Amino acid sequence: MSTFHETAVAAAIAGKLPFGYPVIPAPSTDPGAAGDAVAVTFTGTPGARIALQIADPSQLEDGSPTASLVDRLHPVFESAAAILGPGSLADGEVVPAPEVFTQPGTQVFDLVDADGSVVARAAVRIDGGAAVTASTGSQRLSRIAGVEMELVVEIGRTRMPVRDVLTLEPGRVVELDRAAGSPADIKLNGRLIGHGTVVVADGDFAIRVERILDGAESV
Questions:
Q1: Cα 162 from Cα 206, distance rounded (Å)
Q2: What does the DSSP assignment read for 83-152?
Q3: What's the rounded mean pLDDT across residues 144-171?
Q4: Which region, left, alpha or beta, applies to residue 171 given φ > 0 means left and ψ of -120 to 50 means alpha?
Q5: pLDDT digits (tens, 9 = 90+) for 29-62
Q6: What is the pTM of this model?
Q7: 3-class SS of residue 175
Q8: Which residue has the higher pLDDT, 95 or 209?
């Protein structure tokens, strides 16, 4: 099944988590998990199993610091379930994290702050359901239209030994792995979705989109 549902659910979670700062979801490179997580089951078409781990619950700014974490995260799960359409959301429960994060078919997302620190993790497993059509996809995307996601333009990369990094100084030229005039990569939440040309618009750098990769709509 397309990753549309998983990504949309993760974006809804990121937009609803009551931190005092924005967080964005990024596919995790470490799907493992330790400790406990709060998990819920959504029964619908499609159904889902969704779980959350919060690195530091004291950072949640929901006005209910003495309430159970299950209750504090319930509005977040409700927001995520709304992406999936009509159905029934079961009560949350505390479960061993590996039980839900390592299940086959589960997609794990790191929820990161502006400094790149992982402040929470989400596990999303979609169960069954018909494929997403263009119309239903558009309707469900409208529910998270206000969620901010990180769009990055990358013009090149390089690898340097630590000793060379420590000798960097103003005026030093660092060569990248891409020739002048090559298209820049456009990445959404760390995933490559297209290519473009760097331009200047109203005095600011901008990107003119030249190509969107096949399957980018499944990001």
A1: 31
A2: TT-SEEEPPPEEEEHHHHHTSTTEEEEEEE-TT--EEEEEEEEEE--PPPPHHHHHHHHGGGTT----EE
A3: 84
A4: left
A5: 887 788 999 999 999 888 999 999 999 999 999 9
A6: 0.61
A7: coil
A8: 95
The answer to whether residues 139 and 132 touch, using CB atoms and an 8 Å cutoff, is: no
Sheet with strand 204-212: strands edge to edge: 151-154, 184-188, 191-201, 204-212
Q: Phi and psi for 70 in degrees, rounded to 5?
A: -60, -45
Q: Is 81 left (phi over 0), alpha (psi -120 to 50) or beta?
A: alpha
pLDDT in tens, 139-156: 555 655 666 778 888 888
**CA distance linking residue 170 with residue 36, whole number of Å:** 48
- β-strand partners of 85: none
Q: Please state at what angle helix 4-16 crosses helix 69-82, rounded to 10 degrees.
A: 130
Q: Give dist(CA 62, CA 174) in Å, integer.
A: 46
DSSP class per residue in 1-41: --THHHHHHHHHHHHHS--SS--EEEE-S-----SEEEEEE
Residue 158 has pLDDT above 60, yes or no: yes
* Residue 150 burial (10 A CB sphere; 0-12, 13-18, 19+): middle
Residue type, 97: A
Question: Measured between alpha carbons, how far apart are the two ends of the chain, in Å?
Answer: 12
What is the C-alpha to C-alpha distance for residues 152 and 47, in angstroms, rounded to an integer? 32
pLDDT tens, position by position, 124-144: 999 875 444 444 555 555 655
* pLDDT band, very low/low/confident/very high, at 202 (cuts 50, 70, 90): confident
